[in-house]
Amino acid sequence: MTPTGVNLETSLTKVLGDKTAKALDKAFGLATVGDLLEHYPRRYVVRGELSDIAELEDGEETTVLAEIASVNLRRASGRTILEVVVTDGSAKMWLTFFNQPWREKELRVGRSGMFAGKVGLFNGKRQLSHPDYQLIPDGSDVDDAIAGFAGKFLPVYPSASKLPSWKIAQCVEIVLDSLETIPDYLSEEICARYQFPSLDDAIRFIHQPPNLEDAARSRERLTFDEALLLQILLAQRKARMANIETVARTLRPDGLVKEFESMLPFSFTEGQNEVNSEIADDMAKPHPMHRLLQGEVGSGKTVVALRAMLIAVDNGGQAALLAPTEVLAQQHFSTIKKILGSLAEAGTLGGSLLGTHVVLLTGSMTNAAKKDALTRIKSGDAGIVIGTHALLSAGVEFDDLALVVVDEQHRFGVEQRDALRAKAKHPPHVLVMTATPIPRSVAMTIFGDLEVSTLRQLPSGRAPITTHLIPLDLKPHYLERAWERVREEVEKEHQVYIVAPRISATEVEGSGMTERDLEIARMMDGGVAVEESLESKAPMASVEELAPELALGPLHGLKVAPLHGRQTVELKDATMKAFSHGEIDVLVATTVIEVGVDVPNASMMVIMDADRFGVSQLHQLRGRVGRGAVPGLCLMVTRAQDGSATMERLLAVAGTLDGFELSRIDLEQRSEGDVLGKSQSGMKSHLRLLKVLRDEPLIEKARELALSLIAGDPELTKMPQLAMAVGDLANAESSAFMDKG
Question: CA within 20 to 30 Å of 609's CA: 147, 160, 582, 640, which one?
Fold first, then answer.
């Protein structure tokens, strides 16, 4: 019996039964009809006439009717490869399934079925990697089975072992057959303006398209909807924040900021002056500032943020800087105290009458040090407070928290930012910083409720950085030369970083994969990384192994020290101080030095196993050298194969110092969840179709429409269906990562 009254909120249990509903929930987290209908097809297979295997060409999408001739399951380094040979009576084809051994139970010799996918050639043999298939039930008439299969645009869904694409398509068909007409939250006028189908048609046609044109138009409409709901939500939040009352913190003409600027040994760049003005204007308003400050590695974000903190102190308030790691917090503490000089020693002999106190608070400090810091913070004696997550704990009380600065914002969740903001008597001004440049489309999507300031210009006096690759497999002797270059830099009284991707030397076995296995992995683009190849047999460099190896070998006689996250805070602090003071020649470290570490005398970096790092991470690491007047040199060591995508990525990093260009390359290679940041990790992303880089024109259209819709009707009272959809997004877990307000 077909269920009646089915809408998007209806439980799948009601429509599909308890067993299927539980399977969909377990595999994909789908609970309602709306959830299932948002499980969109990845692509469509044009069924047409069934093909003869002998006539198939490489790269062709096809469907073949064939009989299973043989089945072979084998293992390679803990992974399974299932090879099925099928025949249509005149030719054979190989079907390959990677890490899906359970399929052996149903793909039995003698069974017939239809197999669909993209044809590939390996050693002259036609094959399908991870094909979709539908087996003909034993005893069924083959012609009848084909009749319901060929001649359609069949959707291919993200699937699971117990829920293949066919089964999901059947579930969608059942749901659509009983679904009431879906009300549209966009008016006919808006749909006509953008030439969009109705929401009801879009949902139905994306799953069951009469033709590929309707499928494309439906996908565009639903992608636009995702962008629009998000842009409306962000625009509403921005409007609401503009109405929140707080204490204005104005720039005093003869205060701490003026004294600070007079002491600086350099002048602000044009870009810094512009951002300084934007921040000062924001803080002078009786509404909280919510601004994102992004900038190139070494563009001077810290000094800009420090100036903003001093505005807060000048007005009797306090500023808190939240850093993601103790190494970075300690570095900020040392850097800010050094820049402020006597201004950081108020009330002490030699201190400035206009000064304040700078306090550090981290989780690993001694109880006595913590108690002293907490007392200074609570009394207001500490105008500038720098810390890690320890700042968020219940025992931390501020006298008057006026400004919150969040460094490397992508490393913090919403709850953590809110916990710090909640410690203020009045809504604080908020400045979030990132050294990872953000393309405009990403900024619109994620930070649409923030004003964005960008620092592109590097301070004068910064030396250029030269980057070279060392391909170990092609030119292993280049690594010997690299160690000689390290010695040469130290002889010039410069210092060197050597970066390794891991701390300890845990055993790494070779992949155990044959070239055929690797070809299969590349073709199916899954199971193992596409770039996994023979170079992965070599173990990755580790700090604990590399540091003594270098100290006893090619760098013998130099002062070599390790630095990594498992060391005690005292040891890490002592090591960084020694390196900063020139007492250590070579620092062998993990990515704990990725951001914030500033040693102008460091002139060279060697990055081991550079292919193990992302584009932006490599750019951040490289930014640790060339920070003074000494030219920087970065050598990236890799076993990546010439011509591979990995090598192309490394060549891109070596070829430009433009962080904005590199960030686009980086984001193009990452999943949408990675782009949106760690703060939404584990949450069900609202963005099913929208790709923030690909869809920038669509996001721009959605932003324009969102702003026009709320301009005269901020709460969308005249469009209740749209207001409800935005409200659903606001209440969903998937929107939590956007809540920076």
Answer: 582
Contact 263, 306 (CB under 8 A): no
Interatomic CA distance for residues 58 and 37, integer angstroms: 33
How far apart (Å, rounded) are the C-alpha atoms in residues 520 and 524?
6
563 neighbors 527 (Cβ within 8 angstroms): no
Half-sphere exposure (Cβ direction) of 94: Cα atoms closer than 13 Å: 19
The answer to whether 358 and 337 are in contact (CB under 8 A) is yes
Closest CA to 303 of 261, 346, 345, 255: 261
- Which run of H or E residues covers position 716? none
The sign one gets for the Cα dihedral 529, 639, 465, 332 is: positive
Query: 535 in helix, strand or coil?
Result: helix
Cα–Cα distances (Å) from 427 to 27, 518, 547, in that order, read: 42, 56, 48
Give which of 737, 740, 706 is closest to 225, Cα–Cα: 706
pLDDT per residue as tens digits for the range 209-259: 988 899 999 999 999 999 999 899 989 988 888 889 999 999 998 889 999
Instruction: Yes or no: say if 437 and 458 are a contact pair by the CB < 8 Å rule.
Output: no
Instruction: Kindly report the length of the chain.
Output: 741
Burial label, 675 (beta-carbon count in 10 A; 0-12, 13-18, 19+) = buried
d(CA 579, CA 583): 6
pLDDT single digits (tens) 493-549: 999 999 999 888 753 333 333 444 444 433 333 333 333 333 344 678 999 999 999
Helices (H), ranges, 463-568: 477-491, 515-524, 543-552
Which residues of the chain are modeled with pLDDT < 70? Answer: 1-4, 45-51, 61, 138-152, 161, 347-353, 409-417, 436-437, 441, 446-447, 458-462, 506-538, 594-596, 666-686, 733-741
The H or E element spanning position 382 is strand 382-387
Sequence-distant (≥ 6) Cβ neighbours of residue 254 within 8 angstroms: none
Give the DSSP H or E segment for 79: strand 79-87
- CA-based radius of gyration for the chain: 30
Element (H, E) at 155: strand 153-156
The pLDDT score that the predictor gives to residue 225 is: 96
Q: How far is CA 256 from CA 263, 281, 354, 612, in A?
A: 11, 17, 6, 45
Crossing angle of the two packed helices 615-622 and 645-655, in degrees rounded to 10: 30
Distance CA 210, CA 522 (A): 33
Q: Minimal CA–CA distance to 460: which of 301, 298, 293, 605?
A: 298
Helix (H) or strand (E) holding 73: strand 61-76
